[in-house]
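User: I'm preparing a small set of examples for a lab meeting where we compare how different chains pack in three dimensions. I only have the primary sequence for this one, and I'd like the structure in token form so I can line it up with the others. Please keep the answer compact; I'll paste it straight into my notes.
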Amino acid sequence: MPSTSSPTERREALGEELFQALRAARTIAPLTDRFPDLSIDDAYAISLAFLKRRTADGERIVGKKIGVTSKAVQDMLGVRQPDFGFLTDTMRVAEGAAVSIADAALIQPRAEAEIAFILRSPLSGPGVTDADVLEATASIAPCFEIVDSRIDDWKIKIVDTVADNASCGIFVLGDARVDPRNLDLPTLKVRVLKNGQPLSEGVGAAVQGSPLTAVAWLDNTLGAHGVTLDAGDIILSGSLHSSWSRW
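Assistant: Understood. Below is the structure token output for the 247-residue chain.
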């Protein structure tokens, strides 16, 4: 990349680089190692350039995701704030489907159990509250997000993961639908089993104190970038536990 390129040209070029890495299922050197002056605003602009290439290639946006919400994940990745990314139709995997790393073009995947929100009405920040999120939600569902990084060896800082669509790979949305108004989301517990053996567990409070608070944060943050949550959107509210990479 020429050193004389403008900020906009650099953002577009890095978005293209991430897109090509996605399609080739390969990693690239951390952006922050090569461009230590990149800001969070730069990172979100890069992520939108990355997304633009994906939608131009035929993908359709079906929702958004929140990343790095729990202290456990923040500690593991060495970051101290959430981020967000976009979900497309090609990322979604049906419940019960067999998925191979190669077929899904994953590189260095890790799995996270999350609570997904399915919206019945739009939300537009700023000023969105937990109560607003609850009112706009049609139902919640269990979900696995398979996070994946296009950055070498997960050597990410917050700017790297933001630029890389919040390190999203694919997601498996459970078929079950539950009305969240009948639940205490901060105490809602998830237990993950592998071949019948306990693997990990967590509660809703691990996600910003409540998954509702996480979704409100997302909408208010999106509002600052001129993006809204739409009716029908699937929102992944963040991992309830440390992610793992052992399958």
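A couple of notes for your slides: The domain at 60-239 is CATH 3.90.850.10 (Fumarylacetoacetate hydrolase; domain 2). The radius of gyration is 17 Å.

User: Perfect, thanks.
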